[in-house]
Amino acid sequence: MKTSQSLSRNKSLLFGILLTSFSFLYSGAQSEKDKKTSVISTKPFSDSMNHWYGIADKNNIVNPIPNQPKYEESEYTKIADNIIYFQRDNGGWPKNYDMRAILTTEQINDIVGSRSVLHTTFDNGTTYTHVYYLAQVYTLTKIEKYKTACLKGIDFILEAQYPNGGWPQYYPLEKGYSRHITFNDGAYMGIMNLLDKIVHNDPNFSFIDAETKSKVNTAYEKGIDCILKTQISDHGKLSAWCQQHDEVTLLPVWARKFEPPSVSNAESVDIVLFLMKIENPSEQVIRAVQSAVKWFEDSKIYNTRVETFEAPEMDSKFKKIKDDRRVVNDPTAPPIWTRYYELGTGKPLFCDRDSVYLYSLAEVSRERRSGYAWYTYNPEKALKKYPEWQKKWTPETDVLKK
Length: 402
Fold this sequence. Notes:
Blueprint: H1 2-37, H2 46-54, H3 76-86, H4 105-112, H5 128-141, H6 144-160, E1 181-182, H7 187-199, H8 210-230, E2 233-234, E3 237-238, E4 244-245, E5 263-264, H9 265-277, H10 283-298, E6 304-315, E7 320-329, E8 337-338, E9 340-341, E10 348-351, E11 357-358, H11 366-371, E12 375-376, H12 379-393
């Protein structure tokens, strides 16, 4: 009897140990899972971050210290605090800083002390990315300062919009090409994708009041209208968009000296992907998508590959150059597109810092040839999505059918 009781106690003890171990492991797994779900991606800040570390700029408020430490992505409140440090008095942000940097006291003081400088922008993934990050942090924490900063950022975006629906690169408006409506580097579509989240009730924006939501809805519709009006028409035939459009005439315009008015395939892809997301698209939206997709198909370049290779190091006014690029014939290469196509002729177009039109990569100076993305595969993204979109919204009209 004692032996039986002893065995029973041992079994109970063993079961208890196993149960405790399982509970501990399960708890640890849950804790790890919770930790993962609480990470907010900082990838949207990567363009600005890379510029801060990679390009010395005497106009920066602060520059990185050697081996600047960084917060883990799970430390989202500390990253959000950085975002608030950088927010200017008008609600916008300056570009080219690392939101994950563990800032020194001196850096923080310099940043906070510059809040009245209204050099604020949408360039390099700035402002609209900060707004969405703050919305996510407020949703997780319910800490009021993140909500306040987020709403201030939304107000800035709404104020910066032109009456015709477009957005400049910088606001308040500055001299030069930054006043133009800017599709370059994802600025315009970054804003539109943010507004799309608010319009379509992304849970991270559930705190937005009815008045602000109404203003966002209006800005969103105006933004779509401007997209449709800026699509390039050549003798009545629509193609795609330019990197920048005049803020008054809406026509394609020069940006930097090597960025000519042209059909700009790389920037146009994000516009088309956005238009494809619209439910129950209007006839104008359908026409815009069909026309751009047909343009992408017709402007394919075959048997072409761009090759980067090592070359003797040389100094330019802008940076040290250690490589070069060339175009090679390759019958196995997938279709590729140039970044620019000449208005009127549809020819692949290149340019240099002297703004002279060129028609091959080999004619471009080595500094610009190796330092700029002259070719792109991006249109393939729109072409791949088109069949599903076409079957849903225009089953009787397929512009890709030969």
